[in-house]
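Recap slide: MFS transporter, UMF1 family, sequence and predicted structure.
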Amino acid sequence: MRRFTKQENSWMFYDWANSAYSIIISTAVFPLYYKAAATNAGVSASNSTAYLGYTIAIATFILAMLGPILGTIADYQGLKKKFFTFFFSLGVLFTALLAFIPGDQWLLLLIIYTVAAVGSAGANVFYDAFIVDVTTEERMNKVSARGFGLGYIGSTIPFIISIAIIILAQNEILPIATVTASKIAFIITAIWWGLFSIPLLRNVQQKHFIKREPKPIINSFKRLGKTFKEIKKYRALFLFLLAYFFYIDGVGTIITMSTAYGSDLGITPTNLLIILFVTQVVAAPFTLLYGRLAERFTGKKMLYIGIFVYIIVCIYAYFLETTLDFWILAMLVASSQGGIQALSRSYFAKLVPKEHSNEFFGFYNIFGKFASIMGPLLVAVTAQLTGNSSSGVFSLVLLFIIGIIILAFVPEPKDEQSKSQNNHSEWKGVKM
């Protein structure tokens, strides 16, 4: 089996770098830090969870609006790297700024978090689009899954350091306040993210592009309009995006609001951090397993399995009562979280015209981000109306069901079709 190339490894290593932000800022330390700040300011638990949901919705809406436009412009030769670098730098800078906001300023924390989230998600648009430049269609499932796997493994290192500092501070072993320990975690995240992004910045180049032309912005809008007019030409691609819109909504909502949800259930911050760490460790091999099984059974079939697992997660979440229940829920999420994200990325990459990869990954972003608006809003509104966060998580079942139904109508890429045919032939040859 051919080894990974320098470009493939450099591209995959950005998952190692950026996943520190995903776990420490999006999922673990920052939500708990924010919840504590809001509680100290007199904000109720359900309202602070709701405000976090609204903030995530605002951040994703901003980027959803910018994604296709910036992606279309970035399809010009030499611009993909520049757009990636801008958003990546924005994310790193504002992640570091979180450490300099007073702990009682919960609203300012949410504002800085919004900008950092736009930077992270914006960089991911162009990072995802780079997959067509670093590998072939036949290797996309493996490369994408290994990227997510590296992300889960790599994120555990700054996460362990961060939670160790926080726990030692909580137990007064370190002579610093817990607030200060959390701020150190923000700085660690920014440094880790910036340092390990260097391989991508040095070794990955845009191979598929459109030649520069006069009035690039005007012509980019014209190309975007042409894509909408010719939408029937890309029926499979947009049908997949519609399915993705629904099922990734549930996935993203559970990721970003899991600690706030666990906090509302009465699980201690220390237990939440430990659970999240174990989730990262368990998710790594499962993500790689999804990539390997996709080579055998096709990416589409593995997406079905991932969505089904998340349906079980949402149903089980409604009946959570104990810390053990949350552990079980977290392990279920770990079994499919990385796999469903990795295979969605590679499946979509196989469908897009390579020279227009940024434009179409802009659409991939807008569908994913608009979905991320709907999910947190659904949880936020339901939590406020019922006073119960579990009801909001349970309502996400509908989104997964709609997603899996639409996915059934999406044609498979050519390499996936050949796998299905070969598997079918093998089963026909088996005597029962």
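Residues 169 and 178 are 5 Å apart (CA to CA).
The chain has 18 helices and no strands.
(End of recap.)
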